[in-house]
Amino acid sequence: MRSFGSLAEFAAAKGGHLGHSAWREVTQEQVGMFADATDDHQWIHVDPERAAESPFGGTIAHGYLTLSLVTAFMAEIFSIEGLTMAVNVGLNKVRFHAPVRVGCRVRGGAELIDLKNSPAGKLSTVRVTVEAEGQKRAACVAETLSLYVA
């Protein structure tokens, strides 16, 4: 975990890599709970027997499940002291480059792309790359937007 003492210290990291999260396994139970929460029960996610016959050789995580892990990865990668509030504002772009197979491990890496003034605080753009262990291509690359208020 990289800890920044202030938003000014965080700003000085612009253009740099902030670090990586820990690896975590994507489980079938997790995928099933995500399917229930989002009402997306496509067989490629929830039917291991049928998915075994697919080109993936088994079930895969929902793309949006992979994306939803980005917030947890960011919390493991860095912190900023002295904030009164941090709010997710949105995303500039998201790409799913490779599937995440159930049972594999994933982690996030973060890079501070921009930090600029906004009327309410500082608006950051952080690129998070989600890697799946053993895969050459990133599973997901997302540019997150967060508002930080000191």
From TrEMBL:
<protein>
    <submittedName>
        <fullName>MaoC family dehydratase</fullName>
    </submittedName>
</protein>
<dbReference type="Pfam" id="PF01575">
    <property type="entry name" value="MaoC_dehydratas"/>
</dbReference>
<dbReference type="InterPro" id="IPR002539">
    <property type="entry name" value="MaoC-like_dom"/>
</dbReference>
<comment type="similarity">
    <text>Belongs to the enoyl-CoA hydratase/isomerase family.</text>
</comment>
<dbReference type="InterPro" id="IPR029069">
    <property type="entry name" value="HotDog_dom_sf"/>
</dbReference>
<feature type="domain" description="MaoC-like">
    <location>
        <begin position="10"/>
        <end position="131"/>
    </location>
</feature>
<dbReference type="InterPro" id="IPR039375">
    <property type="entry name" value="NodN-like"/>
</dbReference>
